[in-house]
Amino acid sequence: MQQYICKTCGVQYEKTSEIPEHCMICEEERQYVNPTGQSWTTLENMKAESFRNKIILEETGLYSVKTSPDFAIGQTAYLVQHEGFNLLWDCISYLDEETISEFTRLGGLDAIALSHPHYYSTQIEWAEVFDVPIYIHEDDREWVMRKSDHIVYWSGESIHIHNGLTIHRLGGHFKGGSVLEWESGFNGKGILLTGDIIQVVADREWVSFMYSYPNLIPLPASKVKEIALKVDEMKFARLYNAFHRIVKENAHERVQESAQRYLSALEGTWFKT
After folding, report:
1. Does residue 52 fall inside a structural domain?
2. Residue 90 structural domain
3. Residue 273 counted as domain residue
4. Rounded to the nearest 5°, which phi and psi values hold at 87?
5. Is 161 among the domain residues?
6. Angle, nearest 10°, between helix axes 221-232 and 251-267?
7. Where do the Metallo-beta-lactamase domain residues begin and end (predicted)?
8. Taking Cα atoms as reference points, which of 151, 150, 199, 155 lies closest to residue 175?
9. Contact predicate 29/63, CB 8 Å
10. Distance CA 204, CA 195 (A)
11. How would residue 22 be classed by pLDDT, with cut points 50, 70 and 90?
C-alpha cells in the first residue's frame, strides 16, 4: 500500500495497493492532465531523488519554503512567525528530515492553513509530523484527497487563527479560496498572503484574477468586484503570492487598481482591438 502523489499537481492520495488511474484535481478544468499522461510518485521515491527544500528568510517573521528542483505546480509556501505562533501558509509536497529539523529549529508549527486545493500536497504528512491542525474552508471539502482528524473545516467569511492572523474566504479561483491577512507584518503595515486567489503578474505593480490559470479561464466581473470589496477592508501594504512574486509597496491600492483594470477590460472600456 502506497500513498501516491500526483506529479502534475503534487497532491497526495489515500493509501492504495495500485497506482491510481485518475487524479480528480488534474482532471478538473482548473488544472490539467499532462499531455504525456498521468504520472505518480511517492514521498519515499522523492527522498531518493535530488529534491531539497530551500527555506529563506524574506523579512522579519516571514520565511519562504520552496522545493528545488521544481516539483508539480512549483508553488512557494510561507512560514509566518507572529507572537510565538508559527503558521504554515499553503503547503508543498516534499518533506524530509532536513526540512523537519530546520522547522523545529525555527520553533516548529502551531497550525497549517490553505488557500485552495491545488496546494493541499502532502499537508497530512506535515500535520502529523508537527501534530497541528489544518484549516481548510468547508466549501473545498470535496477536493481533500486524504482524510484526517487534523483537518479543521471552517465556515463563513473569515476565521481568526491567532491574534493578528485572519483567514478570509474570497472565492473566485475556488469556492473556498482564501487569503491570509497578517496585520503586523511589514513593520506593522500589514501583509496579505494570497496563494493565487489573487495572482501577482509579471509586472509586479499589478495583480489579476482567474478561474483557471493554466487554461486561461477568467473570472466574471461580478466575482472580481466582490473580491475587491472584501479585500478593501483588510490591512496590508505588501502582498506575496504562491510563486515568490511580491507587490512590495502600496499593495492595497494596487489590488483595487488592478480590479478596476480587469473590469474595464471585460467591459470593453479600457482599450479597443
Report:
1. yes
2. 2-267
3. no
4. -120, 125
5. yes
6. 160
7. 74-244
8. 155
9. no
10. 15
11. very high
Are the C-beta atoms of residues 31 and 25 closer than 8 Å to each other?
Answer: yes
Domain of 39, CATH number, reads: 3.60.15.10
Query: How many domains are there within the chain?
Result: 1
* Residue 180 domain flag: yes
Q: What is the pTM of this model?
A: 0.96
List the grid coordinates of 144. 481533500
Q: Distance between CA 202 and CA 190 in Å, rounded?
A: 22
Residue 98: predicted pLDDT: 98
Quick one: pLDDT at residue 117?
Answer: 98
The answer to whether 122 and 5 have CB atoms below 8 angstroms apart is yes
Question: Which residues are CB-neighbours of 227 under 8 A, at least 6 positions away?
Answer: 170, 171, 172, 197, 198, 209, 219, 259
How is residue 108 written as a grid cell?
A: 516548529
Print the SS3 string covering the chain: CEEEEECCCCCEEEEECCCCCCCCCCCCCCCCCCCCCCCEECHHHHHCCCCEEEEEEEECCEEEEEEECCCCCCCCEEEEEECCEEEEECCCCCCCHHHHHHHHHCCCCCEEECCCHHHCCCHHHHHHHHCCCEEEEHHHHHHCCCCCCCEEEECCCEEEEECCEEEEECCCCCCCCEEEEECCCCCCCCEEECCCCCEECCCCCCEECEEECCCCEECCHHHHHHHHHHHHCCCCCEEECCCCCEECCCHHHHHHHHHHHHHHHHHCCCCCC
Partnered with residue 247 across adjacent β-strands are 239
Query: What's the average model confidence in pLDDT over 46-66?
Result: 97
Which residues sit opposite 49 in a β-bridge?
none
